[in-house]
Amino acid sequence: MSRTCRLNCIIPPHLLHKLLESEDSEVRQAALDTLLATSRLRGERAVRASFAGAAAPGNGRRTIFDCRKGRFLPFAVLAQSEEGPASADESVKRAFDGLGTTRDFYGEVFQRHSLDGRGMRLDGYVHFDANYNNAFWDGRQMVFGDGDGRIFTDFTRSIDVIAHELTHGVTEFTARLAYHNQPGALNESISDVFGTLVKQWSLKQSAETADWLIGAEVFTPSIDADALRSLKAPGQAYDNALLGKDPQPDHMSGFLNLPDTERGDNGGVHLNSGIPNKAFYLTAMRIGGFAWEAPGLIWYESLKASSIETTFQDFADTTYQKAEELYRAGSAEQLAVLAAWQEVGIQISGVPAGVARARSLAAARNGGVGREDGLTALAQQIGALTAQVSGLAKDVTALKEK
Question: What does the alpha-carbon distance between residue 155 and residue 177 come to, in Å, rounded to a whole number?
Fold first, then answer.
C-alpha cells in the first residue's frame, strides 16, 4: 500500500473487535461503525482539503480543520491557523497545541525541521465522523475522532496519542518501516517511544517520575483501565470484562505469531510492539535522568539508520552500535542498551553471552542507573573473556590427558 493510503490508527483492531462482543448495543454499534469507516478510508486515496485561507506549505505551519462529524475531509472547514485567531473549540485548540508541541520537540531535541526534516506543514482534522473511536495519521494529515462518550473520549485530549501518530510521519520519512510483522511492530513501538518522550519533554519529567503510559486520557472515567499501552509494563495497561486483558508481550518468549491481515493486526503490530517498548523503558531507567536525552538520541539515530524490513534483532544491534558511536564503547549508555535488550530476550549480535551477563551484573550492582566508567567496563569485558579462554584451555588439557 502506498504511503498516502496507509492509515496508522491509535486504537488497535483487537480492541474494537472485543467491543463488538459487548452486551451494550450502543457500544457494539460504535465499534462496528469505527471499523467500517476505517476500512473504507483504507480503500480510498487520502485527499487533502484545499482552502484559500490555509497556511502555505513549509516551516512546519499548523492548520486545523473541523469535519463537523463528516467523513469527507475536503468538506471540513478551516478552524485555526498560525495567522488566525485562536478557536473557542477545545478540540481545535488541543489539536493545534499538540501539533506544535510535537513539532517543537523534534526541532529542539533532534534539530529536525517538522516531520520530513524540511518543514512539512502540519494539518489536523477534528470532529471526524460521529462517535468515531480512533485517531489516525494517513500519510499527510492527522485526524481525530470524538469517541463515543461511553468507552472513549475525544482523542485530542492525549498529547502522547498526537505525538504517536505524528511520529508515524517521521518514520515514513526515515526508515519507512513496513507496516507488518516485526518491522510493523517496530514502527508502532517507535511511535509509542517518541509519543511518551514528547509528553515527558513537555512536562519536564524524568524517566523515574514519568508514567510511561500511552493514551491514559482516551478512556472515559467509567472504564477501569490505565491506558491503551504501557511501556513500563506491557500486558498490564488494562484488565477488565469489557476490554479483556492487555495482550501485549514484554519478552520474545511471548511473541505473538498472528496472520499478516487486517484482522490479524498486520501480524500483531500493536501487540508485539510491547517487546521493543520494554527495551526502551529499561534503557532509559538504567541511564536515568531525562529519557529524551541519551536514550532518545540513541533510538532516533537508530531509526534513521534502519530500513523498510528492519527486524527487532536488526534494531537492537543498531542501538548498541549507535550507543558506542555516540558515547564510546563500554559506556554506561551502551551497557544500558545491552542489558535492556537482553532482558527482553534479544542478544546483541557479536557479543558473547558471558560478556553480556557480566555487563548486566555490573549494571545491576550500580543500581541499574547512572554512568559507569568506560575503563571499568572494558576491564570487566576482558576479565570475562579471560575466564572463558581459561575454561577452554582446561577443557583442551583434560582432553589431551585422556
Answer: 25
Domain holding 345, by residue range, is 177-402
Check whether residue 119 and residue 216 sit in a common domain: no
Is the pTM value of this prediction over 0.85?
A: yes
State pLDDT tens for residues 141-183. Answer: 999 999 999 999 999 999 999 999 999 999 999 999 999 999 9
Catalytic site includes residue 14: no
Q: Running DSSP on this structure, what letter comes out for residue 125?
A: E
Strands 213-214 and 229-230: antiparallel
- Compute, in degrees rounded to 10, the torsion defined by CA atoms 218, 36, 21, 134: -10
Find residue 219's DSSP bridge partners. 152
**Residue where the block lists cell 501539533:** 99
- Set 14, 270, 333, 372: catalytic member: 270
Asked if pLDDT for residue 379 goes beyond 50, the answer is: no
Of 152, 173, 194, the one marking the end of a domain is: 173
Q: Are residues 207 and 230 in the same domain?
A: yes
The verdict on 216 and 150 lying in the same domain is no
Q: Which of 14, 165, 333, 372 is catalytic?
A: 165
260 and 395 housed in the same domain: yes
Residues 267 and 184 in one domain: yes
Q: Is 270 a catalytic residue?
A: yes
Q: Is 216 helix (H, G, I), strand (E, B) or coil?
A: coil
**How far is 78 from 100, CA to CA, in rounded Å?**
17
Query: Which of 173, 203, 218 corresponds to the end of one domain?
Result: 173
Measure the CA–CA gap between 340 and 343, rounded to whole angstroms.
5
Residue pair 48/140 in contact (Cβ under 8 Å)? The answer is yes
* Total residues found in the chain within this entry: 402
User: Could you give the CA distance from residue 377 to residue 315 in angstroms, rounded to a whole number?
Assistant: 23
* Domain identity same for 200 and 164: no
- Judgement on whether residues 5 and 24 belong to the same structural domain of the protein: yes
Q: Are residues 268 and 376 located together in one domain of the fold?
A: yes
* Nearest by Cα to 34 from 151, 141, 167, 122: 151
pLDDT above 50 (res 108): yes
Question: Is residue 80 classed as helix, strand or coil in its secondary structure?
Answer: strand
Contact partners, residue 189, CB within 8 Å, separation at least 6: 273, 274, 275, 276, 277, 280
